[in-house]
Amino acid sequence: MKKNGKRFISLLCGMVLLLSPMAVRAAEAPYQTYTIDKWGNATPAPDGYLPTRSIGGAQLGLGDFKDASDMFYCAEYGELYIVDSGNRRIVVLDRNLQAVKCWESLTLQDGSEYSFVNPQGIYAAGEKVYIAEMGRQEVVVCDREGQVSNVFGAPVSSLLPDNFNYQPHKVVVDAAGRIYVLSKGVYQGIVYLEQDGSFIKFFGANEVEMTLKRRVQKVWKSILSDKAAATMQAFNPIEYGNLFLGADGYIYATAAGSESRGESTNVLTKLNPLGIDTLPFKSRISILYGDVTVDESGVITLIEANEGTIYQMDENGKLMFTFGGLGNQVGLFKKPVSMVQIEEKIYVLDADKNTITEFELTQFGKLVRTAINLYNEGLYEESIEPWQEVVRRNSNYLLAYTGLGKAYYQLGEYDRAMYYYRLANDRANYSDAYKEASLQRMRDSFGTIVLAAALIAAAAVVFAKHRKKRKGANA
Q1: Which of 42, 223, 406, 427 could connect to 34 by a Cys-Cys bridge, CB 3.0–4.6 Å?
Q2: What does the alpha-carbon distance between residue 181 and residue 201 come to, in Å, rounded to a whole number?
Q3: Residues 203 and 339 grouped into a single domain
Q4: Is residue 306 domain-shared with residue 433, that is, in the same domain?
């Protein structure tokens, strides 16, 4: 009897512990996920991602990372490259985050060593690895074993300004082998190089919007003396801080400067092969994005550099999820600097905590991604059920209403599409659906309209003949 009593007390204590607030908090994310409602207010939402682990260099048997600056995932070989700038090395992990290589130097063609001074950026394309070595003012190209094939120094061209200071810190390479380099302090755009490292041009400079304030300043500059005008603020575009080459061949770039945030600079641009921004939404808001990654579905994920928040949005800029923040817990950051997406997981590099944090999609997040992927594959009817399940779990999730509206629009059910667009407060799409619904009603009623017109015309003819006969009879 005493044993049974002790077992009952132990079981009761266990249940109390499981149901206690402390236990519940341990199972929750260390941040509050939110979405934006139709009135533009932030409202709590189910988590789209949860942190699963945090890994440092010491756990990999490599010693602590130090001021790590960049990451790149090569899907072809399942290798994750990390630029460990403070330790002057490149660390390579496999898809399970296990160390497989560590380059503290590279091997030149003559057999001598190429030592790193201040590596900052990295990109891998097939067998080639491109490293932006800012300390040496070079872009070095090597194979997957660290054998150097090319070293490209500062470009030389009459198109470059006399005071051009080459400080390469990020690099991507397109399918044709042309190289795009971000150089610190360069506001003219991305340094665009041929395969042999020769300069082509500056690519995709961030445009300066001529606001009323800037127009007034421009008028004053034309009136004032050269000396006085020189003291006024210049209209230079803000330099780029990071870039990402999407699967579609477009370059996504984030703005580096903060002095013009929310005023005249796009903090995110999508540059086509001509260097023209084709992003379907404008992002002139008081946010400074530190890094960007885009998956094959067009979903954009960005790190907010100052607050450590990660924003994920669809290709039209509709907010999907937010997660992360500043703090010491797993899932929070001190200085997030780089990010990669590997299948459904997101990895964030923190230069201050010297860790890589892994985030995994929740069931709610998988529902949203499933609906988006089905729609993008042209399976409009199949995307309806997951969107409806998202609404059942969170009635304030506007993206689900937009998704339902888009699905019904593609199915030709414009009245239903209008209903969901109205719930999403999506005026542009509502207007398109309204036009199509009006045209559809006109087409459906066309036969009736033609018949009615014919009857009216026939009646008019009969009435005219009858009236003519009456006039003849009276005469």
Answers
A1: 42
A2: 11
A3: yes
A4: no
